[in-house]
């Protein structure tokens, strides 16, 4: 058992001691079963050590949260983490312990935590001008809008900046209603588009909907390739949209709002052929097609810069947030010059939309994605990680499905593959154990039984190996 002392410090002291005691007992009773170097996965080396943390402890922060912050706030893990430092794909807690971040702040950190180019852009702009208003000219908002428009297909080149994805989707829905003159909008069951007035209507999970007036949105059958009634037949799901128009509206609609890959919904990629068919149906009904790229945009899917591009469609409006600023609060709506004119009929104004610091950050993010070829990396590493996770599915019966694209992947856990019974308790258990071993992942899906793997796009194959090995180790000991 001398080799145990060589095991990486990727585990917390208490958990490592527990593992050592367990291995020691196992080695005494069944020495042939113990290969110390193979048992505990080793985190890849990383040349960075955070400065000492001198702030309040996790317990003190939790106490203040409970006393002064909204009781609606919740946290992951039975023992919540106090994260105080970050560098690229890694995070550090109050004790300086390193974690592999495979969640990316909910698909938000795309370039990497505290990427030097992004930090430099933020600091430089903050030192010169932190805020003015769009009533004055400033180069930051204009340059970022131009760069963002260059990444869009077709005539999508007019940008409205917002503060979040919810706000972007709210604005997009209003624009669609104003432009078409119709009110009804169709979204998908299991979707999440935000938690304000209109977006809560478009969201279709009871967990995120309060008992307030929600009108004008119809929820179509979700083209779910894993649990859906038509499997991967996108055209059959698409017929439901026409039925909704025929039997639930005046025959015309304002628009259709959907993610190419449902994020909160459990990393569900829409069935092939679905979007193209539905876009055609919506156009015939006089509506606009809105692509929600809040989570799947900015090269995350690897194969394309935007999620909708994988479906061969061009929307009328695109919404985005999260990865656009690498953690800075910013969102955007991009549409055509013709559609954009509707906001000139009255006064539309946003105090913080297009803030100089936020837009400087966004421009830096675009430049980093291109300079460091992060879209290519998301494709290569994401494909490798998906293959490894798929292989893990063959080993562990609890894995019902592995899905997604690039570095937007989902692993659904079930207690029965035939019945697809959600493994809710087991999901929490595995998450907790993976955290103890140094890997942070998210969870989602209607039943809360899907691992959401959305790391920074600088994720490496070595990181992917560590993640899969830790998941394998944890599942093997359930």
Automatic annotation (TrEMBL):
A Pfam family of this chain: Aminotran_3
InterPro entries noted in UniProt: Aminotrans_3, Aminotrans_3_PPA_site, PyrdxlP-dep_Trfase, PyrdxlP-dep_Trfase_major, PyrdxlP-dep_Trfase_small
UniProt keyword annotations, A-Z: Photorespiration, Pyridoxal phosphate
Enzyme Commission numbers on file: 2.6.1.44
Protein name (record): alanine--glyoxylate transaminase
A molecular-function term among this protein's GO annotations: alanine-glyoxylate transaminase activity
Superkingdom per UniProt: Eukaryota
């Amino acid at each position: 058992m001398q080799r145990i002392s060589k095991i990486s410090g990727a585990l917390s002291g208490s958990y490592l001691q527990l593992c050592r005691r367990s291995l020691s007992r196992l080695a005494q009773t069944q020495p042939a079963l113990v290969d110390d170097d193979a048992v505990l996965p080793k985190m890849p080396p990383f040349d960075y050590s955070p400065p000492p943390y001198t702030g309040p402890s996790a317990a003190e922060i939790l106490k203040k949260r409970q006393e002064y912050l909204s009781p609606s706030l919740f946290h992951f893990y039975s023992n919540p983490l106090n994260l105080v430092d970050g560098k690229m794909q890694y995070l550090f807690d109050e004790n300086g312990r390193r974690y592999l971040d495979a969640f990316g702040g909910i698909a938000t950190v795309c370039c990497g935590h505290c990427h030097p180019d992004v930090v430099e852009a933020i600091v430089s702009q903050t030192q010169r001008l932190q805020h003015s208003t769009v009533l004055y000219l400033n180069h930051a908002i204009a340059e970022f809008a131009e760069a963002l428009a260059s990444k869009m297909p077709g005539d999508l080149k007019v940008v409205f900046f917002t503060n979040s994805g919810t706000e972007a989707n709210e604005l997009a829905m209003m624009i669609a209603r104003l432009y078409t003159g119709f009110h009804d909008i169709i979204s998908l069951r299991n979707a999440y588009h935000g938690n304000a007035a209109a977006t809560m209507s478009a969201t279709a999970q009871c967990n995120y909907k309060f008992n307030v007036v929600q009108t004008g949105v119809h929820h179509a059958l979700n083209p779910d390739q894993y649990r859906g009634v038509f499997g991967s037949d996108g055209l059959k799901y698409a017929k439901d949209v026409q039925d909704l128009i025929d039997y639930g509206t005046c025959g015309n609609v304002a628009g259709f709002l959907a993610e190419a890959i449902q994020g909160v919904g459990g990393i569900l990629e829409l069935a092939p052929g679905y979007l193209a068919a539905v876009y055609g149906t919506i156009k015939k009904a006089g509506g606009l097609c809105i692509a929600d790229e809040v989570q799947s945009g900015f090269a995350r899917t690897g194969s394309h810069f935007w999620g909708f591009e994988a479906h061969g469609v061009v929307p009328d409006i695109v919404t985005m947030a999260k990865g656009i600023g690498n953690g800075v609060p910013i969102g955007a709506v991009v549409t055509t010059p013709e559609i954009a004119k509707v906001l000139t009929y009255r006064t539309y104004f946003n105090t913080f939309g297009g803030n100089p610091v936020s837009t400087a950050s966004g421009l830096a993010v675009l430049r980093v994605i291109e300079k460091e070829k992060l879209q290519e990396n998301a494709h290569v590493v994401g494909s490798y990680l998906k293959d490894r996770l798929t292989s893990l599915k063959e080993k562990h019966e609890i894995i019902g499905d592995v899905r997604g694209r690039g570095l937007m992947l989902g692993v659904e856990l079930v207690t029965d593959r035939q019945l697809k019974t959600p493994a809710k308790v087991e999901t929490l258990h595995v998450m907790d154990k993976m955290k103890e071993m140094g890997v942070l992942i998210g969870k989602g899906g209607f039943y809360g039984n899907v691992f959401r793997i959305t790391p920074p796009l600088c994720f490496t194959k070595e990181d992917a190996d560590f993640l899969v090995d830790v998941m394998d180790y944890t599942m093997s000991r359930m």
